[in-house]
Amino acid sequence: MDTAPAPAPEPIRFDTKIAVLLRADLEPWQRLNVTSFLVSGLGTQLPEVIGEPYEDADGVPYLPMFRQPVMVFEATKETLTAAHARALSRALPRAVFTSDLFATGHDRDNRAAVRAVPTADLDLVGLAVYGPKNAVDKVVKGARMHP
What we know:
By secondary structure, the chain is an alpha+beta fold. It is 32% helix and 23% strand.
């Protein structure tokens, strides 16, 4: 009888990347809140980023999540603004969070707050992007991995 262990499966390599870029001066609670809101936008519009539903050993089902890691970066306000411009120029799927959204209480007011400000004047505190790895890497250039 052969008792040799099965070979380890090859690691999965993705040709796409999900990245969240946060402004470095945010409070810890703000970082978590902004990240949560930003990635929710990607999951609703890009079904290819969502994996299969989960189930535990007892058959209890759980919601599906992203199929790949989410890389979180931080940067200065200037780097975040430049990253936003690069995401726009590459037409990458994106979600934004502006400082105005900390003062709103629900989705309708959030949308109105963003709609009230021209693109160049958005006070960005967070940006999520999805796309080909090399394009996303160019968007987040100058940022560093979140500590």
